[in-house]
Task: structure prediction
Amino acid sequence: MQKSLLHTIHTPKELRLLNQKDLPQLAQELREFIINIVATKEGHLGASLGVVELTIALHYVFNTPIDQLIWDVGHQAYGHKILTGRKNNFHTNRQLGGISGFPNRNESNYDTFGVGHASTSISAALGMAIASKLKGEFEKQHIAVIGDASIAGGMAFEGLNHAGVTDTNLLVILNDNAIGIDPSVGALKMYLTNVKKGTQKRNNIIKALNFDYSGPIDGHNINTIISELKRLKKVKGPKFLHVITTKGKGLKQAETDQVKYHAPGLFDAKTGELIVKSGFNQPPKYQDVFGFTIVELAKLNKKIIGITPAMPTGSSLKYMMDIMPDRAFDVGIAEQHAVTLAAGMATQGLIPFCNIYSTFLQRAYDQIIHDVALQNLPVIFCLDRAGLVGEDGPTHHGIFDLSYLRSIPNLIIFAPRNEVELRNIMYTAQLGLKHPIAIRYPRGQGVTRNWKQAFTKIEIGKGTQLKKGDKLAILSIGSISKNVTEAIIDLQVSHYDLRFVKPLDETLLHAIFKNYETIVTIEDNSIKGGFGSAISEFASENNYKNTIKILGIPDVFIEHGDVGTLQKSVGLDAENLKKRFSLLYR
Ligand SMILES: Cc1ncc(C[n+]2csc(CCOP(=O)(O)OP(=O)(O)O)c2C)c(N)n1
Ligand SMILES: CC(=O)[C@@H](O)[C@H](O)COP(=O)(O)O
Ligand SMILES: [Mg+2]
Result:
């Protein structure tokens, strides 16, 4: 019976005392450890399984945490966390109060840079490398591990372009497994494929950028990786190592169904089989309502185009991509490009639905202003994952879009309270708007089983009253309406769904301000600059002196955890809302 090695390793210092010939056994144990925990605690699986050998080799060769190691996106860093002192609490991964699902500087000095959004690692590592050089720390190494989908992100190229003219101790390791969450796309993917097949000169793009390029090497052969890393340690200046790995390596199903096993949910650690939660007679996910509805509309309106930056499965645009591949585009991890691509299409009379998670759209802010709104181009932005998203935590909560979009002229902002409203605003938008529109909706399931109703046109800028009461007017926006409805079942208060943050329904607001002394606004968005701020601005512009209470996400970053508990922690759950309304309802 082999003695377990993993349980003797608490830090890379102990790892580096191991005999190199024992490392394959350590890899096997680390893989099993990851599988056993993620099977029951959920999380990102495939990416971490794919870099087990690379992770061990990096901590074996480099003097971490002095040598700086940055993981791009960081969803592949479970092995890194387990080997750097977090084995014993790794079972708390992504749980409220537990460790983060991504490297986080507050969590460990081995997590040298906080990540979660793709394509940042090269810039961060270069920044560290230049700093080390200026500080005279000439022996310090700086390593960025970036995937084949993430390196196609514009920011990664910006980092490479700069690094190529520096003589810093920077090593960029391309973890090439030929897939993002969905299959990687674009000319770079084709190029890398040909390099691997040997039908293309070995990565002269990188050499042209003045990098010392080496590879491709087998990213699962620890000995090969270690000898190459040891060689590269002595090479001065910017270096680029191309490693080939298999996403999901070591679990058959994760290797064959790599999309699903990127984040598979619960599964049987022994067999690898998924444990599917019954969805019988459950309301659909908002993303699927989007996905099915855009197909329905695109069949009727040939001008409709779908665009996603690398999230075909997550956004459910894959339904349209499967049926109409010439009208639905996965542009890769390229949010800025996605937005301006849509703008270009709109100038030619097409009707682009640009589907980008709220948090990832932050990356394309100038494109929204400069390329879309300033030119008043009718792009239809569908912001999925708006609001608190749960276990992905502060890097992924979509809680700023109402604030960051509201100050942009010409932009319509709509938030559906349910799936029927989402369908109807999509239908309305494709009829031909004179402005761009942003439609924001949450991660996960909606509230309506019979969502597939006939389309109804929505009047732009019109809100609606959902419940009549007295003394207190509650104004909600979007899907948080569900919690309000539950909270006021026994309260005689009025509840309005304003539906639009821009333009506001001013006629309705005048009536509300004239009839209720106290007005409460609620949003699954930061209270800074969001829906409540819009209502306050309306009141001040019209000299109303009513009491306005703004409820929403406080001005802090919200940690990871299940959505229900996170909503409770900020007082947006039905129970807390009921208490708050009752106090105001004298
Ligand atoms: C800016 C941004 N856009 C999209 C995502 C969603 N996302 C997370 S992982 C991933 C795929 C990453 O693929 P790759 O870089 O090849 O790494 P791998 O998972 O293959 O290890 C994507 C698109 C993100 N995290 N950040
Ligand atoms: C790591 C990353 O950014 C993605 O995998 C993200 O976690 C997907 O989020 P959803 O699970 O909400 O699609
Ligand atoms: Mg990849």
Q: What stands out?
A: The domain at 286-442 is CATH 3.40.50.970 (Rossmann fold).
